[in-house]
Specification:
The complex is a heterodimer of chains A (353) and B (158). Chain A is built from nine helices and 16 strands. Chain A is α/β, with parallel strands linked by helices and 353 residues long. In chain A, the strands form four sheets. Chain A has a seven-stranded mixed β-sheet with strand order 11-12-8-13-16-14-15, with helices on one face. Chain A is elongated, with a radius of gyration of 30 Å. Helix content of chain B is 37%, strand content 27%. In chain B, strand 3 and strand 4 form a beta hairpin. Classes of the chains: A alpha/beta (353), B alpha+beta (158). The interface between A and B is large, with 49 and 49 residues.
Chain lengths: 353, 158
């Protein structure tokens, strides 16, 4: 505005024009504009230098570019929350570069190597962004909801008419582990899921004085929902005769599972597809889980020979491992039995022919 | 009066010249700060080369063999996809200052050697000698696995 005023004043000042001549007035105007720009530059660069913003911007540009390069190098699907402080930053991710404060003439940028699908994102004032790689494509979003929906599953039509809901490990395994300290059992959670699915699970209280044994016995364990026959059973039941066994657990041994839902499956495309659809539906519910991963048993923390783990019994087993519940602050997940049940139901509906 | 006008005009020219000099100083200042900021965050040497190597070996978009459910098998090269067209698409380094050359020696039938390189590769550039990586190569019929060697070389451009 100031520059504009000076400009107008100089142009309109006939006296100055008479005094110096029109050419000189034009040159002076040009000089004043250049001077104003220069002063602006000095102030802006001084501010960025003094506040360290220029270093933060350089770091963010490089870090984001390297993150994208890393994501492209992953053989499977992956999701992550980029948690660097992005508040008040504008950034553009173009087809080959990351640029911070892209509208500034002194913006910083760093190149990454792009794949066949070119990226084009522009974000501003976001606390976190979510980056996922699905198949060959990298997807960025500033909203968790969109991020949750990015799990893409191979479409498949399968026949499932008998489902076994398997709960918990043996009692000794539960005692002394994370969830036991706050009296939470996978058994209770699975029972809650079954009841929310539509079953009426009658409890036969067995008071042994040991809290982990209380209510272990179940009755009326079989029920039908949407044409599927569900049965709730203790761990390590023989899965023969079932089209699918769902084993529900908390990751109480593994701190890295916090806020993550993992489906462990055997190396079988059909089971993998079912697991993906179930996880995808569960992630759409707002239950505090930010990441979803599907892993095969090989390479997971489970050994196929682990006697606690039922996957050795057959291919048609999915182990749903939800985030750990170490403390009361993690308890929210425990009360999401209805959403988990809904996720299972909707996930199965999308694949069952 | 005429002399006074001439003096004022000379002064004005001086001011304009001064602005130009200061402008030049501003540009130098900005450049120096940019260089300084760049040196404060040094990426550890070899990080980008490692990422690009991982990408060549693992990315399902490039050459890694995929099964019928699109699962990638890192370290197994699909011979049918190891070509320049695919490389250009899955590895677009238009603005990156790394140039890459891949040399695959597939040990089946007669030994076949295929060389792929990014468009900015300079044959006369000095490159660090690196040993080849042992890989498996899925043959062009997709039925058999053969041994192979993949050499991945880098040099910086600009």
């Amino acid at each position: 505005m100031l520059i504009l005023i000076i400009l107008v004043m100089l142009i309109m000042n006939k006296k100055a024009e008479r005094h110096f001549g029109p050419r000189m007035v034009l040159m002076m105007t040009f000089g004043v504009v250049l001077g104003a720009l220069m002063i602006f530059f000095f102030i802006e660069m001084g501010r960025e230098y003094a506040t360290g913003e220029i270093y933060t911007n350089t770091f963010l540009a490089r870090d984001l570019a390297l993150t994208i390069d890393s994501m492209y190098a992953v053989p499977g699907n992956v999701m992550m929350t980029y948690k660097e402080d992005l508040n008040s930053k504008l950034f553009k991710i173009g087809e080959n570069y990351v640029k911070i404060d892209p509208d500034d003439p002194d913006s910083t940028q760093y190149a990454y190597v792009s794949d066949r699908e070119k990226l084009d994102y522009y974000f501003g004032d976001k606390e976190n962004i979510f980056i996922s790689k699905q198949g060959y494509d990298i997807i960025l979003s500033d909203g968790q909801e969109e991020f949750r929906n990015t799990l893409t599953c191979t479409p498949m039509s399968v026949e499932v008419s008998r489902v076994l809901l398997e709960y918990s490990r043996n009692l000794e395994a539960v005692i002394g582990r994370g969830t036991e300290t706050i009296n939470i059992r996978e058994f209770d959670f699975t029972r809650g899921v079954a009841q929310n699915l539509g079953g009426f699970i009658e409890m036969n209280i067995v008071n042994t004085g040991n809290i982990a044994l209380e209510g272990r016995s179940l009755a009326l364990k079989t029920f039908y929902v949407d044409g599927i026959n569900y049965r709730v059973e203790d761990y390590q039941q023989d899965v023969q005769g079932y089209d699918l066994a769902l084993s529900i657990h908390f990751g109480e041994e593994d701190d890295s599972l916090k806020n993550v839902a993992v489906a462990y499956v055997n190396d079988d495309a059909q089971t993998r597809s079912i697991a993906c659809h179930i996880l995808s539906e569960i992630m759409k519910k707002d239950i505090g889980l930010t990441n979803a991963v599907i892993k095969t048993v090989d390479g997971s923390r489970f050994d196929i020979s682990d006697s606690l783990f039922p996957l050795s019994l057959g291919d048609n087993v999915i182990l749903l491992e939800f985030g750990n519940i170490h403390a009361r602050s993690d308890m929210n997940l425990y009360f999401e039995q209805s959403n988990v049940a809904l996720g299972i139901k909707e996930g199965l509906n999308s694949v069952v022919s | 009066m005429n002399r006074k006008a001439q003096t004022t005009a000379e002064d004005a020219m001086g001011i304009v010249a001064l602005f130009f000099v200061l402008m030049l100083a501003a540009i130098i200042f900005v450049s120096l700060i940019g260089v300084d900021a760049g040196t404060k965050h040094v990426i550890r040497e070899g990080v980008e080369e490692t990422l690009f190597t991982q990408r060549v070996l693992s990315s399902p978009s490039c050459f890694t063999y995929r099964d019928n459910v699109n699962r990638a098998y890192p370290g197994i090269i699909d011979f049918t996809r190891f070509n320049q067209e695919n490389f250009d698409q899955c590895f677009d380094n238009t603005y990156n200052n790394y140039a890459i050359r891949l040399t695959l020696v597939a040990k089946f039938l007669e030994r076949q050697t295929i060389v792929l390189k990014t468009s900015n590769w300079q044959d006369y550039a000095i490159i660090e000698e690196k040993p080849p990586i042992n890989v498996l190569v899925k043959d062009d019929e997709g039925e058999h696995l053969f041994e192979g060697e993949l050499r991945i070389e880098f040099h910086k451009v600009g």
